[in-house]
Amino acid sequence: MTSSFSITLPEITTAMLDALCSHCMQENGSVETCPHCGYNALTHKDHPLYLKPKTLLKNQYIVGKPLGQGGFGVTYIGLDCWLQKRVAIKEYLPSSLASRDSADTTVVPFKNQADAFQQGLNLFIDEARNLAKFDHPHIVRVSNFFEENRTGYMVMDFLDGDNLAVFLDKNGGKVSVEQALDIILPILDALSAVHAKHIYHRDISLHNVLLLKTGVPILIDFGAARHIMGEHSRSLDLVLKHGYSPLEQYSGRGKIGAWTDIYASGALLYHLLSGMLPPAATDRFCEESLQPLTQIAGLQIPDYLNLAIEKALAVRLEDRFQSVDEFEAALLGKPFIPLTPPQDTLESSEELGKTQEDTPTSKRQRLIWSSVLLLLILLIASISYYRPFTAPIDKLLNTAQAQWQAQKLTTPTGDNVYETYQQILRLDPSNQPAQQGLSKLADYYQQQAIILKNKGNLTDSLQLVQQTLALLPQYPALLALAQDLNQQLANQQKQKHLAELLIKANHERELGQLAQAYQTYQQILQQEANNLPAQAGLAQTADAYITLIKQQTNSIDSTRLLQEALQYYPNHLELLALQKKIINNQRLQTLLTQAEQQINALQLTEPLDDNAYNTYQQVLNLDPDNPNAKAGLLRIAEQYERMARAERQAEKRSHFIEKGLKVLPNHTGLLALAQLYTLPAKPTPPQPTPPVVETPPPVDTKPEPPIKALLLTAEQQRKTGQWETAINTYRNVLALDNKNTQAQAGLVQIASHYLQLAREQMAKNELQQGLISIEKGLTAQADHADLLALQSEIRQKLTKQQADKANTPPTSEDNKPTDKPNRPLIFTPSF
User: Fold this and answer.
1) Which residues fall within 8 angstroms of residue 541, CB to CB, at 6 or more apart?
2) pLDDT along the chain (831 residues), means of 10
3) Helical H runs in 275-315?
4) In 328-406, at which residue ranges do the beta strands (DSSP E only) sit?
5) What number of CA atoms fall less than 13 Å from residue 137's CA on the CB side?
6) What is the pLDDT of residue 682?
7) Residue 151: beta bridge partners?
8) pLDDT, position 811
9) Phi first, then psi: what are they for 429, rounded to 5°?
């Protein structure tokens, strides 16, 4: 009988993704600010290299915010939807070899870097596979690994804690001996486990040991693949951490083993106890500069612990502990006993057990014979020491000279200068000609490497130096040259990468992908702050935004583009001026539309707070030459002319004529009607009509109001809070004297009053009342910048509130709300 079962995978819906906080990966109910961690999703800005939050991998893992990035990859917080737990997801993305396609999530190697990228990807997957086999309490657990988006991913446990660098910052920069051992001993236990499988960490440092909130240390971020990739790309930045890296890691042919991690562990322990990083191994090779812990003021370190750390930090790998267990025993001040004693030791023990018990006579005999044997050994050693080796050494020196002339320096095997000098030094370790010959050999290869370097062949030069160091590792000049070449190659690779990014950014700008171009230029400047082409590209992108905004025929599109541009260039003067112009144009359009509706409703000059004449006056205050407003005033005057001609009652007809002439005093049709209807002679006995010149025009029959009296009235009205009436009075003064500074100052003060009132209403969330106050202020001063800006801000808030309430996208500023519109309160000067 066969049984079967199936696993039902959770359905990952859009609603589920929306309700997830990308910072802590907990459900936040789709609110802007997460109630668990306080993260505001609106502050997030996409990075061109990172996966976007809420990206789904393998239909199982949801990607959140990046936890960290190095030259080798990016690590994100994530959610395992199957197990419903948080994880850490590491993505293989070496920034020197590849970038992310701007159109999707795939990773694309740079030109000529595809092979190196693929080699690194294979190493990344192999490392994940090896680490997944470990289940150690002090090694981060790898639960899954896979390939997607043309790259690789490693899924690990999410660890809640700080790395040791952060821990030290929080604890004064150093810790006690007890605390340090509580951290380092579990890490050594973890290293012992991985060393048993011939896996070496290669990158132990403060940043790669995590201390959980429970106090448990965890070893993270194994660097074997990174080191191999670093050696491939000649980038020391990927491979080395000065102070932690032993001498063998400075050469591509250095012998890596347990002693490599022991050196870095010793450096880590030294840093924890002293608060200082040991000097770089290359510096110590030239001159020992490591200060013993026992000589540092304020530290109380046991001698055995100091000696153990110094041995772990020995420059020569042969002088270090050869196993982690031996190092651990020394740290505890205990003798190291190997688990499997040497075979010859066992045999000697057995034979010793079989010997008879020594007698006093046999002891004396053995002592005599031992003394004789010792004297013989010393005699033979003395004879051997003083025995001349001149003949074979001279012959070898002559051979080396002939090999020099034949340029047999390191090849062929068995017949070259290097092997001959080594043979001499085995016979006579202090032989100066041989030592000088090896120095000459190192100098020769150094000069050859410098020649290649000067020709620009940095890779070949570095390869030659590394080959020489494999034979002659004790020459500081070669080590320094190797480091310099590595740095130059890294800079060369960096410049190549920056050049490719610049081409990409320029191409995006030419295609009109301005936001992507801006981000790519910024990516360049993050790596090289003074990159002039990138700075020029940013300026050209701003100009392209301005051109594109001006080309838009739709106000919604132009506003959207302007907001996007100001997000990147918030202080750009021309963009700010364009913003002010667009706001003015939008207001002009709103006023013109409003005036058109008022004309259609025959609200020509009345009511006081809602008429076409006042609306057109506001337009002319913003744009004195606006043709639509001038045409609108003409239409109002013509409408009054038609109404006057159609009216039969003399009093109403005169009223229409007077209204029209107040709108356009020089309107010929209205002037003719005024002449025809409003200037007849009084009913008296028939007399000749007096000359027209003797009768003043009707419009001049009223005495002109004195300006002083009007100003006093307006001032009194303003002081008593009759703001709207004061506006009318001040405008009457300006109608008589359009440059009257007292009237202009009065209107400015009234506008400032309404600005302050609107701000208070906005603070109380009385947004509609705030808009009304702003419109009153604009009646006093139509171009008041602060009022216009506040009006735009309140309208945006109202639009958002309406959109949230209706659960629909917010309407544009140009679209009118569906309920009754808020008409601006407009006041007409009295006629």
Assistant:
1) 509, 514, 517, 518, 521, 568
2) 45 82 86 87 84 93 90 90 93 90 88 89 90 91 95 94 93 94 96 91 92 92 57 53 89 85 96 94 85 90 94 94 94 73 39 42 53 52 45 85 89 86 86 89 90 90 86 83 88 90 94 93 92 94 92 86 92 90 89 93 89 94 92 91 88 91 89 73 46 43 62 88 85 84 91 93 91 88 89 88 69 43 36 32
3) 281-286, 303-312
4) none
5) 9
6) 41
7) 148
8) 46
9) -60, -20
Report the C-alpha gap between 190 and 564 in whole angstroms.
51
Given this model, what pLDDT does residue 218 score?
A: 95
- Asked if 568 and 535 count as a contact pair (C-beta separation under 8 A), the reply is no
Number of residues that this document lists for the chain: 831
Domain covering 707-806: architecture: Alpha Horseshoe (1.25)
Say if residues 273 and 171 touch (Cβ distance below 8 Å). Answer: no
14-157 adopts what CATH topology?
A: Phosphorylase Kinase; domain 1 (3.30.200)
Question: Which are the contacts of 725, defined by CB distance < 8 A and separation ≥ 6?
Answer: 717
CB-based contacts of 813: which residues, under 8 Å, 6+ apart? 559, 586, 792, 795, 796, 799
C-alpha 800/C-alpha 231 separation (Å) is 55
The reply to whether omega before 698 is within 30° of 0 (cis) is no
Cβ atoms 73, 105 nearer than 8 A? no
pLDDT computed for residue 176 by the predictor: 94
391-474 and 707-806, same CATH topology: yes
CA distance linking residue 486 with residue 222, whole number of Å: 22
Q: 90 labelled as ligand-binding? A: yes
Distances in Å between the alpha carbon of 452 and those of 406, 448, 449, 478, 683? 22, 6, 5, 14, 119
Residue 364 neighbours by CB under 8 Å, 6+ apart: none
Structure tokens at 682: 């009084």
**CA distance linking residue 189 with residue 604, whole number of Å:** 92
| 8 A C-beta contact, residue 810 and residue 763 | no
Domains of the chain, residue spans: 14-157, 161-331, 391-474, 476-549, 552-680+694-702, 707-806
The answer to whether 459 and 449 have CB atoms below 8 angstroms apart is no
CATH of 391-474, picked from 2.60.420, 1.25.40, 1.10.287, 2.60.40, is 1.25.40
Superfamily, domain 161-331: Transferase(Phosphotransferase) domain 1 (1.10.510.10)
Q: Which of 213, 199, 207, 221 is nearest to 267 (CA)?
A: 207
